[in-house]
Amino acid sequence: MQDILLLMQDPAAWIALITLIIMEVVLGIDNLIFISILTNKLPAESRERARRIGIGLALVMRLGLLGTVAWIVQLTAPVFTIMGNEFSWKDMILIAGGLFLVWKATKEIHHSVDPEDHDEDFIAKSSTATTTFAAAIGQILLLDLVFSVDSIITAVGMTPHLPIMVVAVVVAVTVMLVAAGPLARFIEKNPTIVMLALGFLLMIGTTLIAEGMGFHVPKGYVYAAMAFSALVEVLNMLTRRKRQRDKAPKH
Hints:
This protein has a two-stranded antiparallel ribbon. By secondary structure, it is mostly helical. About 25% of the residues are buried. Helix 2 (about 10-40) packs antiparallel against helix 3 (about 45-65), helix 3 runs parallel beside helix 6 and helix 3 packs antiparallel against helix 7. The chain has helices at about 1-10, 10-40, 45-65, 70-75, 90-115, 130-160, 160-190, 190-210, 220-245, and strands spanning about 80, 85-90.
């Protein structure tokens, strides 16, 4: 308790907290896009519950990982070397998560282009709502693990104070929880956004694989590209709406 009171009086701790919250929220965007796309494929009555469970699992996982900070730090230690490149457990988790994201995004793009081919849709194979719901939660849980490890390692690298990490993670996940519903509804109402979001997931998956292979990709470049693409799509949406208004019969 005394340590927390001392941290509250330290301006540097507040700066670290605000910076970490911003970084955690930005890192959470990737996870949120995936959850929104995946839960929109569920029956309408199950979507909100799936989003809450998925984001709740992300919070539990991140807080659990924070409780094992010493172990998390060891994840960056080399485990084996291939052709002069050292690979740690973190690298392998990032590569596995990146491959899963690329696979999933590719499947979803294929299904969007050819919606009649249900055999290509992992979730649509399920015969009951329960199985579909379980499949969605399972995939969310897998990506939660990947993004949580990346998030916590980032937090550990920014500050040595556990209370700051906990507050930053809780605030970031709360923001995700608040934004999940509106984002999912926006994606559902704008079909072209789905393809753009899937493109984002492909790029994020490729970035994770590159990071795992030892090629550092500045996050600023990735998010700048995402922001530019989103801006272009917003302009396209405004143009389409203007055309629709112009075509509408005037009374």
